[in-house]
Amino acid sequence: MTVPPCFADRREAGIYLGRRLAELDFGKPRDDVAPALVLALPRGGVPVAFEVARALNARLDVLLVRKIGAAGYPELALGAVVEGDAGGKGPHTVVNDDPWAQRAVESGSFDAERGRQLNEITRRQQRYRGGKPVPAMAGRTVIVVDDGVATGATMRAALEGVRMAGAAQVVAAVPVGAQDGLASLQPAADQVICLNTPPSFGAVGAFYLDFTQTSDDEALALLREAASWQVR
After folding, report:
1. Considering the domain boundaries, does residue 1 fall inside one?
2. Of 7, 109, 167, 206, which sits most exposed with the smallest number of CB within 10 A?
């Protein structure tokens, strides 16, 4: 399959990514296991994941991940927290291995910010699912989708959360990614699938002609449409 160096938009990227995953038999029916569960990292990952789930005839949902920033410097990431699932697994927290994160843990500011982000996850669960948790992941193939990977920090936290929830197979799937960011995902995933890994990577948006921010309304409309598909 020939992949364009630049995608028209996220939906087109998802069509190509879905084809690749179908070629790898992720959509192949198996009597003894549930179909793959496709989880999008909102909001930009939703249009991509929508097309992936459609290609695989898989269930689509979102996986809520929130960055934990430093007090007074929210752009400085100290870690992340990933929502729990319907199987009873609680939220999973990732703490960066660096001096800033360790100081925040010791001072208590990390836990305080984690609490705020958990509240935001609860708010978004209400917005996206009416307050319900993400479907149970134990024993399933779970494909985590975003519109691209730069540093890989958010995706890595998401994959670790999926692993902790007992997924049988953990897959990261993106249309484009930086080599270093993708390499950082390898310990957390059984497979990392990326269509385009350019040697020179500036930003994810540089590989889309239209990289307009995905709105909540667009994401919710796609999730509602996907909910009509007959999958378990």
Report:
1. no
2. 206
